[in-house]
């Protein structure tokens, strides 16, 4: 049991209230700044983004927008319509623009797809990102496929295919790598799932963390968005927040059959982007930016792998395998996740996500994001100190008894 002072307990209660108000998501950094000013967040290891990519974006933004006065154009002018931004991405992604739908963040695309195209029954693997089951409309049956703890919450492809065939849904969802555990299903296995389950109307593949996954020693990017052309029941969703570190910009896209894109554009999504997002998408497709971005992507992957390896050396925790920029950690030896997260925040200024609200997780779990090398080093030392503190208190309690 982690010990708190009376003043710290008041902060713990405030943290609990903020988390309850945020529902199945985490309170934002700005929410904490506003409602919990007594806590100084030094490392945001809750929200999932590549800090080196953020640095790169800021460098370009300063040089091309702020320092040139072009910021006025972004503020004063309307951004392009959805289809125009799709045309910007088309050549870069090697996908027909008619198959690309631009979203105000991936969350808007998830909602649009689930609301408009899931009619009868949806299978969702758990634990996973909560919005997929929260956005299901009344009258649609939700069936959960439980990822096994004994298999480190990785997808058993054979078992999954059999499960879907037995339940016959019109929609299935695969987040790859999965959130919150970072489990990755190889491209060949996902393709097999698509081929075996051709009867499913909508196969949603969420690749929001795909830039952190790899299948080669060179860390080459693997994406299945090109499969939409030959498999019109496939829908690939992509958040730009995580890999490019621009959550505040609100940018994402989906790749799906043209009929779906057309339907969405006719139902309120024609002009759903903003000038900053359009600037990012135009920057994203430029060769000079893409080359520099890939270097910081690989640098971040390598440092994340080192971070995960160091975490595995710590006692009293289990670190689950991950191909994302975060890890799922199970706290052992009676350590409570809510207390552990609160202690990290109050004493060390490290913001981490507790997973108590994740359907499909039983036990004491936290999700920890990788940050810069210096921040990761600080996180390691702080977690080690928290664990040692818990061990000391446990020993004292046992001695007293």
UniProtKB/TrEMBL annotation:
- Identify the keywords attached in UniProt to this record, alphabetized: Aminotransferase, Transferase
Identify the EC number(s): 2.6.1.9
Tell me the ranges covered by the Aminotransferase class I/classII large domain, including all copies.
78-383
**What InterPro entries does the record tag this protein with?**
Aminotransferase_I/II_large, PyrdxlP-dep_Trfase, PyrdxlP-dep_Trfase_major, PyrdxlP-dep_Trfase_small
Which CDD domains does its entry note? AAT_like
GO MF annotation terms: histidinol-phosphate transaminase activity
Q: What name does this protein carry? A: Histidinol-phosphate transaminase
Identify the enzyme class: transferase
